[in-house]
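To the wet lab folks,

You asked to see what we're planning to order before we commit. Fair enough. Below is the target structure as C-alpha coordinates, and below that is the sequence we designed to fit it. If anything looks off to you, flag it before the synthesis order goes out.
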Protein backbone atom coordinates (compact mmCIF):
# COMPACT_ATOMS: atom_id res chain seq x y z
CA UNK A 1 0.00 0.00 0.00
CA UNK A 2 2.59 2.55 0.83
CA UNK A 3 4.16 1.72 -2.49
CA UNK A 4 0.82 2.24 -4.35
CA UNK A 5 0.28 5.60 -2.66
CA UNK A 6 3.73 6.62 -3.69
CA UNK A 7 3.49 5.45 -7.31
CA UNK A 8 -0.04 6.45 -8.26
CA UNK A 9 0.29 10.18 -7.99
CA UNK A 10 3.47 9.96 -10.01
CA UNK A 11 1.63 8.13 -12.80
CA UNK A 12 -0.76 11.02 -13.06
CA UNK A 13 1.89 13.65 -13.26
CA UNK A 14 2.37 15.10 -16.71
CA UNK A 15 5.61 13.94 -18.23
CA UNK A 16 7.93 16.93 -18.09
CA UNK A 17 11.38 16.61 -19.52
CA UNK A 18 14.03 19.30 -19.84
CA UNK A 19 13.27 21.10 -23.11
CA UNK A 20 15.64 20.05 -25.86
CA UNK A 21 17.66 23.14 -26.91
CA UNK A 22 16.30 24.17 -30.29
CA UNK A 23 19.03 24.41 -32.90
CA UNK A 24 19.34 28.03 -34.03
CA UNK A 25 19.70 27.89 -37.79
CA UNK A 26 21.76 31.07 -37.89
CA UNK A 27 23.98 30.72 -34.82
CA UNK A 28 24.44 26.98 -34.47
CA UNK A 29 27.90 25.81 -35.50
CA UNK A 30 27.53 24.13 -38.80
CA UNK A 31 29.20 22.66 -41.81
CA UNK A 32 29.18 24.68 -44.98
CA UNK A 33 31.08 24.87 -48.24
CA UNK A 34 32.58 28.35 -47.94
CA UNK A 35 32.91 30.28 -44.68
CA UNK A 36 33.51 34.01 -45.13
CA UNK A 37 34.91 36.03 -42.24
CA UNK A 38 33.81 39.67 -42.51
CA UNK A 39 30.45 41.01 -43.71
CA UNK A 40 31.75 44.30 -45.09
CA UNK A 41 31.22 45.03 -48.77
CA UNK A 42 34.04 42.66 -49.82
CA UNK A 43 32.73 39.69 -47.81
CA UNK A 44 29.13 40.38 -48.84
CA UNK A 45 30.12 40.66 -52.52
CA UNK A 46 32.07 37.40 -52.27
CA UNK A 47 29.05 35.72 -50.65
CA UNK A 48 26.78 36.97 -53.42
CA UNK A 49 29.03 35.65 -56.19
CA UNK A 50 29.09 32.25 -54.49
CA UNK A 51 25.36 32.10 -53.72
CA UNK A 52 24.58 33.14 -57.32
CA UNK A 53 26.54 30.02 -58.33
CA UNK A 54 24.44 27.89 -55.95
CA UNK A 55 27.22 27.39 -53.39
CA UNK A 56 26.45 27.20 -49.66
CA UNK A 57 28.03 30.08 -47.72
CA UNK A 58 28.30 31.10 -44.08
CA UNK A 59 28.99 34.83 -43.63
CA UNK A 60 30.19 35.67 -40.15
CA UNK A 61 31.08 39.03 -38.54
CA UNK A 62 32.15 40.19 -35.10
CA UNK A 63 30.08 43.37 -35.40
CA UNK A 64 26.43 43.89 -34.49
CA UNK A 65 25.47 44.11 -38.16
CA UNK A 66 26.75 44.08 -41.71
CA UNK A 67 28.66 46.75 -43.59
CA UNK A 68 31.97 47.02 -41.72
CA UNK A 69 33.32 50.45 -42.60
CA UNK A 70 30.06 51.24 -44.42
CA UNK A 71 29.08 52.36 -40.96
CA UNK A 72 26.41 54.50 -39.32
CA UNK A 73 26.35 55.59 -35.68
CA UNK A 74 22.87 55.91 -34.18
CA UNK A 75 22.66 58.48 -31.41
CA UNK A 76 20.06 59.06 -28.71
CA UNK A 77 20.17 62.71 -27.72
CA UNK A 78 19.65 63.98 -24.19
CA UNK A 79 16.02 64.89 -25.00
CA UNK A 80 15.33 61.41 -26.35
CA UNK A 81 15.44 62.32 -30.05
CA UNK A 82 17.26 59.96 -32.40
CA UNK A 83 20.00 61.04 -34.75
CA UNK A 84 22.28 59.17 -37.14
CA UNK A 85 25.56 59.83 -38.85
CA UNK A 86 27.76 57.89 -41.28
CA UNK A 87 31.13 57.91 -39.53
CA UNK A 88 33.01 55.57 -41.89
CA UNK A 89 32.78 55.67 -45.70
CA UNK A 90 31.18 58.95 -46.77
CA UNK A 91 30.12 58.20 -50.32
CA UNK A 92 31.32 56.12 -53.22
CA UNK A 93 31.81 56.47 -56.93
CA UNK A 94 31.12 53.79 -59.55
CA UNK A 95 33.68 53.41 -62.30
CA UNK A 96 33.60 49.82 -63.59
CA UNK A 97 30.71 48.39 -65.56
CA UNK A 98 30.26 45.50 -63.13
CA UNK A 99 30.02 47.81 -60.12
CA UNK A 100 27.64 50.15 -61.96
CA UNK A 101 25.36 47.17 -62.70
CA UNK A 102 25.39 46.12 -59.03
CA UNK A 103 24.73 49.73 -57.99
CA UNK A 104 21.70 49.93 -60.31
CA UNK A 105 20.24 46.95 -58.43
CA UNK A 106 20.85 48.57 -55.03
CA UNK A 107 19.24 51.81 -56.22
CA UNK A 108 16.22 49.90 -57.54
CA UNK A 109 15.95 48.16 -54.14
CA UNK A 110 16.12 51.48 -52.27
CA UNK A 111 19.44 50.59 -50.61
CA UNK A 112 21.49 53.32 -52.36
CA UNK A 113 20.93 56.66 -54.08
CA UNK A 114 22.92 59.38 -55.83
CA UNK A 115 24.09 62.21 -53.58
CA UNK A 116 24.19 65.42 -55.65
CA UNK A 117 26.13 67.20 -52.91
CA UNK A 118 27.49 70.74 -52.86
CA UNK A 119 31.19 69.96 -52.45
CA UNK A 120 34.38 71.96 -52.57
CA UNK A 121 37.40 72.98 -50.54
CA UNK A 122 37.56 74.90 -47.31
CA UNK A 123 40.73 76.86 -46.59
CA UNK A 124 41.16 79.56 -43.93
CA UNK A 125 37.40 79.63 -43.42
CA UNK A 126 36.72 80.26 -47.11
CA UNK A 127 34.71 77.75 -49.17
CA UNK A 128 35.46 77.29 -52.86
CA UNK A 129 32.97 75.14 -54.78
CA UNK A 130 34.58 72.23 -56.63
CA UNK A 131 34.39 71.71 -60.35
CA UNK A 132 31.61 69.43 -61.54
CA UNK A 133 32.76 65.91 -60.63
CA UNK A 134 31.54 62.39 -61.17
CA UNK A 135 28.35 61.43 -59.32
CA UNK A 136 28.69 60.22 -55.74
CA UNK A 137 26.42 57.62 -54.17
CA UNK A 138 25.45 56.70 -50.61
CA UNK A 139 23.60 53.87 -48.88
CA UNK A 140 20.02 54.78 -47.95
CA UNK A 141 18.60 55.63 -45.50
CA UNK A 142 22.05 55.24 -43.98
CA UNK A 143 25.38 53.88 -45.18
CA UNK A 144 25.12 50.71 -43.10
CA UNK A 145 21.79 49.86 -44.79
CA UNK A 146 23.69 49.02 -47.96
CA UNK A 147 25.79 46.49 -46.03
CA UNK A 148 22.66 44.90 -44.57
CA UNK A 149 21.03 44.77 -48.00
CA UNK A 150 24.05 43.06 -49.51
CA UNK A 151 24.73 40.62 -46.69
CA UNK A 152 21.11 39.42 -46.58
CA UNK A 153 19.40 37.90 -43.57
CA UNK A 154 21.52 34.79 -43.20
CA UNK A 155 24.73 36.43 -41.93
CA UNK A 156 25.83 35.71 -38.36
CA UNK A 157 26.79 38.65 -36.20
CA UNK A 158 28.54 39.14 -32.88
CA UNK A 159 30.91 36.25 -33.59
CA UNK A 160 34.61 37.07 -33.68
CA UNK A 161 36.74 34.42 -35.32
CA UNK A 162 39.79 34.22 -33.07
CA UNK A 163 41.57 31.28 -34.65
CA UNK A 164 41.56 29.10 -37.76
CA UNK A 165 42.39 25.42 -37.69
CA UNK A 166 43.22 23.39 -40.80
CA UNK A 167 41.71 19.92 -40.90
CA UNK A 168 41.88 17.12 -43.45
CA UNK A 169 38.54 18.21 -44.94
CA UNK A 170 38.95 21.98 -44.74
CA UNK A 171 38.81 24.55 -41.97
CA UNK A 172 37.41 25.01 -38.47
CA UNK A 173 36.65 28.58 -37.39
CA UNK A 174 36.99 28.99 -33.65
CA UNK A 175 35.64 31.73 -31.42
CA UNK A 176 37.30 33.54 -28.53
CA UNK A 177 36.71 30.73 -26.04
CA UNK A 178 37.93 28.12 -28.52
CA UNK A 179 34.35 27.17 -29.43
CA UNK A 180 33.59 25.91 -32.93
CA UNK A 181 31.70 28.52 -34.94
CA UNK A 182 31.71 27.03 -38.43
CA UNK A 183 33.34 24.17 -40.26
CA UNK A 184 33.88 24.64 -44.00
CA UNK A 185 35.77 23.17 -46.91
CA UNK A 186 36.97 26.63 -48.00
CA UNK A 187 37.57 29.77 -45.98
CA UNK A 188 37.66 33.41 -47.11
CA UNK A 189 39.07 36.25 -45.01
CA UNK A 190 37.42 39.56 -45.92
CA UNK A 191 38.87 41.62 -43.07
CA UNK A 192 41.46 44.45 -43.02
CA UNK A 193 45.00 43.34 -43.94
CA UNK A 194 46.53 43.50 -40.42
CA UNK A 195 43.70 41.27 -39.17
CA UNK A 196 44.30 38.83 -42.02
CA UNK A 197 47.93 38.56 -40.92
CA UNK A 198 46.91 37.87 -37.30
CA UNK A 199 44.57 35.05 -38.34
CA UNK A 200 46.78 33.52 -41.01
CA UNK A 201 50.25 33.82 -39.46
CA UNK A 202 50.43 30.22 -38.30
CA UNK A 203 48.15 28.49 -40.81
CA UNK A 204 48.89 29.91 -44.28
CA UNK A 205 51.81 29.68 -46.69
CA UNK A 206 54.51 32.18 -45.59
CA UNK A 207 54.47 33.84 -49.05
CA UNK A 208 50.77 34.68 -48.69
CA UNK A 209 51.24 36.04 -45.18
CA UNK A 210 54.24 38.13 -46.31
CA UNK A 211 52.30 39.61 -49.25
CA UNK A 212 49.45 40.72 -46.95
CA UNK A 213 51.87 41.96 -44.28
CA UNK A 214 53.41 44.32 -46.86
CA UNK A 215 50.09 46.17 -47.22
CA UNK A 216 50.03 49.43 -45.29
CA UNK A 217 46.93 50.98 -43.75
CA UNK A 218 46.33 54.38 -42.17
CA UNK A 219 44.04 55.17 -39.24
CA UNK A 220 41.35 57.85 -39.16
CA UNK A 221 39.73 59.61 -36.23
CA UNK A 222 36.13 60.70 -36.88
CA UNK A 223 34.13 63.34 -35.00
CA UNK A 224 30.32 63.39 -35.08
CA UNK A 225 28.29 66.46 -34.10
CA UNK A 226 24.50 66.92 -33.81
CA UNK A 227 22.84 70.35 -33.92
CA UNK A 228 19.28 71.46 -33.30
CA UNK A 229 18.96 73.03 -36.74
CA UNK A 230 20.91 73.56 -39.97
CA UNK A 231 24.32 75.22 -39.72
CA UNK A 232 24.39 78.25 -42.06
CA UNK A 233 27.22 76.93 -44.22
CA UNK A 234 27.08 77.02 -48.05
CA UNK A 235 28.13 73.39 -48.61
CA UNK A 236 27.31 69.74 -47.84
CA UNK A 237 30.89 68.47 -47.86
CA UNK A 238 34.33 70.03 -47.97
CA UNK A 239 37.93 68.90 -48.26
CA UNK A 240 39.62 70.99 -45.59
CA UNK A 241 43.08 72.51 -45.86
CA UNK A 242 45.40 73.55 -43.03
CA UNK A 243 43.42 71.74 -40.33
CA UNK A 244 43.61 68.52 -38.30
CA UNK A 245 40.46 67.63 -40.31
CA UNK A 246 40.69 66.80 -43.97
CA UNK A 247 36.96 66.29 -44.62
CA UNK A 248 33.73 67.58 -43.12
CA UNK A 249 30.20 66.81 -44.28
CA UNK A 250 26.61 67.64 -43.52
CA UNK A 251 25.43 64.07 -43.08
CA UNK A 252 21.83 65.24 -42.87
CA UNK A 253 22.06 66.46 -46.50
CA UNK A 254 22.38 62.92 -47.85
CA UNK A 255 19.27 61.37 -49.44
CA UNK A 256 16.81 59.63 -47.12
CA UNK A 257 18.28 61.07 -43.91
CA UNK A 258 16.20 62.79 -41.26
CA UNK A 259 16.92 66.54 -41.67
CA UNK A 260 16.82 67.30 -37.96
CA UNK A 261 18.64 67.09 -35.69
CA UNK A 262 21.30 68.11 -38.21
CA UNK A 263 24.34 65.85 -38.01
CA UNK A 264 27.83 66.59 -39.27
CA UNK A 265 30.91 64.39 -39.49
CA UNK A 266 34.58 65.29 -39.68
CA UNK A 267 37.52 63.04 -40.57
CA UNK A 268 41.01 63.80 -39.33
CA UNK A 269 44.02 63.73 -41.62
CA UNK A 270 46.12 60.54 -41.60
CA UNK A 271 48.98 62.52 -39.98
CA UNK A 272 46.81 63.74 -37.10
CA UNK A 273 45.25 60.30 -36.73
CA UNK A 274 48.65 58.59 -36.53
CA UNK A 275 49.91 61.15 -34.02
CA UNK A 276 46.83 60.63 -31.81
CA UNK A 277 46.38 56.92 -32.52
CA UNK A 278 46.46 55.88 -28.87
CA UNK A 279 44.65 58.94 -27.51
CA UNK A 280 41.55 58.23 -25.44
CA UNK A 281 38.20 59.36 -26.90
CA UNK A 282 37.98 61.85 -24.02
CA UNK A 283 41.29 63.40 -25.10
CA UNK A 284 40.58 63.36 -28.85
CA UNK A 285 37.03 64.77 -28.65
CA UNK A 286 37.76 68.40 -27.60
CA UNK A 287 40.62 68.62 -30.10
CA UNK A 288 38.48 67.44 -33.00
CA UNK A 289 35.49 69.56 -31.98
CA UNK A 290 37.78 72.60 -31.82
CA UNK A 291 39.14 71.73 -35.29
CA UNK A 292 35.58 71.52 -36.66
CA UNK A 293 34.68 74.91 -35.16
CA UNK A 294 37.87 76.53 -36.37
CA UNK A 295 37.42 75.19 -39.93
CA UNK A 296 33.74 76.15 -40.21
CA UNK A 297 33.71 79.24 -38.00
CA UNK A 298 30.60 77.81 -36.34
CA UNK A 299 30.00 78.44 -32.64
CA UNK A 300 26.47 76.96 -32.59
CA UNK A 301 26.12 74.79 -29.48
CA UNK A 302 26.11 71.09 -30.28
CA UNK A 303 23.46 68.77 -28.81
CA UNK A 304 25.87 65.86 -28.92
CA UNK A 305 29.49 65.25 -29.89
CA UNK A 306 31.22 61.88 -30.17
CA UNK A 307 34.40 60.49 -31.70
CA UNK A 308 35.40 57.15 -33.19
CA UNK A 309 38.83 55.83 -34.06
CA UNK A 310 39.19 53.68 -37.16
CA UNK A 311 42.47 51.86 -36.59
CA UNK A 312 42.54 50.34 -40.08
CA UNK A 313 40.66 52.99 -42.04
CA UNK A 314 42.33 53.28 -45.42
CA UNK A 315 44.83 51.19 -47.33
CA UNK A 316 47.73 53.57 -48.00
CA UNK A 317 49.82 50.89 -49.78
CA UNK A 318 47.47 48.30 -51.31
CA UNK A 319 48.38 44.82 -52.49
CA UNK A 320 48.00 45.60 -56.19
CA UNK A 321 45.97 42.48 -57.07
CA UNK A 322 42.24 41.87 -56.67
CA UNK A 323 42.70 39.01 -54.16
CA UNK A 324 44.95 36.12 -53.14
CA UNK A 325 44.02 32.46 -53.15
CA UNK A 326 45.73 29.23 -52.18
CA UNK A 327 43.44 26.83 -54.04
CA UNK A 328 45.10 23.69 -52.64
CA UNK A 329 44.57 24.89 -49.07
CA UNK A 330 41.03 26.15 -49.76
CA UNK A 331 41.99 29.62 -48.54
CA UNK A 332 41.29 33.05 -50.04
CA UNK A 333 41.68 36.66 -48.92
CA UNK A 334 39.98 39.78 -50.21
CA UNK A 335 39.15 43.32 -49.11
CA UNK A 336 39.52 46.92 -50.20
CA UNK A 337 43.17 46.78 -49.17
CA UNK A 338 43.88 44.60 -52.22
CA UNK A 339 43.12 47.40 -54.70
CA UNK A 340 42.73 50.68 -52.81
CA UNK A 341 40.80 52.46 -50.07
CA UNK A 342 37.43 52.61 -51.82
CA UNK A 343 34.06 50.93 -51.53
CA UNK A 344 34.22 49.91 -55.18
CA UNK A 345 37.62 48.29 -54.58
CA UNK A 346 36.14 46.17 -51.76
CA UNK A 347 33.27 45.04 -53.99
CA UNK A 348 35.59 44.28 -56.92
CA UNK A 349 37.94 42.27 -54.71
CA UNK A 350 35.19 40.21 -53.06
CA UNK A 351 33.41 39.56 -56.35
CA UNK A 352 36.63 38.44 -58.08
CA UNK A 353 37.48 35.98 -55.30
CA UNK A 354 33.90 34.65 -55.11
CA UNK A 355 33.82 34.07 -58.86
CA UNK A 356 37.19 32.31 -58.81
CA UNK A 357 36.11 29.96 -56.00
CA UNK A 358 32.78 29.28 -57.74
CA UNK A 359 34.64 28.47 -60.97
CA UNK A 360 37.01 26.07 -59.25
CA UNK A 361 34.18 24.31 -57.37
CA UNK A 362 32.24 23.93 -60.62
CA UNK A 363 35.19 22.24 -62.29
CA UNK A 364 36.07 20.15 -59.21
CA UNK A 365 32.97 19.76 -57.03
CA UNK A 366 34.78 17.35 -54.67
C1 LIG B 1 36.78 57.01 -42.07
C2 LIG B 1 36.63 56.34 -43.41
C3 LIG B 1 36.24 57.07 -44.52
C4 LIG B 1 36.10 56.44 -45.75
N1 LIG B 1 35.64 57.16 -46.81
C5 LIG B 1 35.41 56.53 -47.98
C6 LIG B 1 34.81 57.23 -49.07
O1 LIG B 1 34.42 58.39 -48.94
N2 LIG B 1 34.66 56.57 -50.27
C7 LIG B 1 35.01 55.26 -50.42
O2 LIG B 1 34.82 54.69 -51.50
N3 LIG B 1 35.55 54.56 -49.37
C8 LIG B 1 35.75 55.17 -48.19
N4 LIG B 1 36.28 54.48 -47.13
C9 LIG B 1 36.76 53.12 -47.37
C10 LIG B 1 35.61 52.11 -47.39
O3 LIG B 1 34.88 52.22 -46.20
C11 LIG B 1 36.25 50.72 -47.50
O4 LIG B 1 37.00 50.69 -48.69
C12 LIG B 1 35.25 49.56 -47.56
O5 LIG B 1 34.12 49.80 -46.76
C13 LIG B 1 36.02 48.32 -47.11
O6 LIG B 1 35.20 47.17 -47.15
P1 LIG B 1 35.79 45.74 -46.73
O7 LIG B 1 34.65 44.80 -46.84
O8 LIG B 1 37.02 45.48 -47.50
O9 LIG B 1 36.26 45.88 -45.20
P2 LIG B 1 35.42 46.23 -43.90
O10 LIG B 1 34.28 47.13 -44.23
O11 LIG B 1 36.41 46.71 -42.89
O12 LIG B 1 34.81 44.84 -43.43
C14 LIG B 1 35.52 43.91 -42.66
C15 LIG B 1 34.56 43.23 -41.70
O13 LIG B 1 35.27 42.18 -41.04
C16 LIG B 1 34.81 42.10 -39.72
N5 LIG B 1 35.85 41.41 -38.96
C17 LIG B 1 37.15 41.77 -38.77
N6 LIG B 1 37.81 40.85 -38.07
C18 LIG B 1 36.91 39.87 -37.79
C19 LIG B 1 37.00 38.63 -37.09
N7 LIG B 1 38.15 38.23 -36.53
N8 LIG B 1 35.90 37.85 -36.98
C20 LIG B 1 34.72 38.26 -37.53
N9 LIG B 1 34.59 39.41 -38.22
C21 LIG B 1 35.67 40.21 -38.35
C22 LIG B 1 34.58 43.54 -39.31
O14 LIG B 1 33.67 43.64 -38.22
C23 LIG B 1 34.03 44.14 -40.61
O15 LIG B 1 32.62 44.15 -40.63
C24 LIG B 1 36.38 55.06 -45.88
C25 LIG B 1 36.75 54.33 -44.74
C26 LIG B 1 36.85 54.95 -43.51
C27 LIG B 1 37.19 54.14 -42.30
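Sequence we intend to order:
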Amino acid sequence: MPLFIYVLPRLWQPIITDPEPMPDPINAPHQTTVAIIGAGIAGAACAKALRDAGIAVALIDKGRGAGGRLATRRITLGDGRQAQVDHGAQYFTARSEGFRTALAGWIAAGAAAPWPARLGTLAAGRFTPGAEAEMRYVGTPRMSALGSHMAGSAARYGQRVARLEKTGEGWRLLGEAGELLVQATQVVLAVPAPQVVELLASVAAPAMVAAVAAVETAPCWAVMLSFDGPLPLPFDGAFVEGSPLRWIARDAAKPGRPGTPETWVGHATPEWSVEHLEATPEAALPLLEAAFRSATGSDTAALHVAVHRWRYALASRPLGASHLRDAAAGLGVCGDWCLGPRVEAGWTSGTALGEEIAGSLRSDPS
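Structural context that might help your review: The mean pLDDT is 91. The longest strand covers residues 304-317.

Thanks,
Computational group
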